[in-house]
# Entry
Amino acid sequence: MAARTDALTARSGLSYRRKGAGTPLVLVHGYLGGAAQWQAEIDRFADRFDVIAPDLPGYAGSAALPPADRIARFGAAVVDLLDELGLGRITLLGHSMGGMIVQDMAATHPDRIARLILYGTGPLGLMPDRFEPLDTSRDRVRCDGVAQTIRRIGATWFREGTAAQGFGIVADLGAQASEAAALAGLDAMSHWDGRGALVRLTMPTLVLWGDGDKSYRWPQVELLWQGLPDAALAVIPGTAHAVHLEKPALFHAVLDDFLTPARP
# Structure
């Protein structure tokens, strides 16, 4: 197993990981996630990309920062990091709530996004047909605490539940968030609706989804695929919400195909 990429700290206090050189590839995690979940992707793509993975405010290495309670505020924190690093046009990937964040970034800064990857996400933060309503998750955070909540929610992200190989890192990263950050993230999602902006996201986009995803069901994914002007769809069989941890080789192959320019 490759050594973990050391965390760096921006002037804002935001923690991030960075490795490689070339076109910037920015990886944005989702609810109760963290940059460390992308270690395999950082290692896999650093030979030809400048791979950057932030810890969003309130989560993992950025847990000491004030949490964001709106998707746009998460996006602004990532944009501030990109500005500090002097990055212009980037390739941008967002997973789950991170997919909402990158949709918001792409709508706000379209000229900066060369290619977009929307992974395990949708255009509506309330997530119709999610395994449980956001209000239920909010109540359970208050009742059970963050560490127990991420174990319960995180188990739904894998076909094999808590027995899945990647479950440990999900549980560890999520437990680093405070209750305030966990609640703020739920508020951010519940207030966000990106459906009206889809037609403005004209950059080439890959919509990537695990066919057993219990957070973002097919109607959400279909809205993205059909609503975006230039979208390709990849459905990964036998996976749930954490495809990159469940079937990393297949996940990487799909990304590599999308990220490699077609030869004339």
User: Anything to note?
Assistant: The mean pLDDT is 96. The chain has one domain: 7-259. The radius of gyration is 17 Å. The beta strands are 7-9, 15-20, 23-28, 49-54, 90-95, 113-119, 205-210, 231-236.
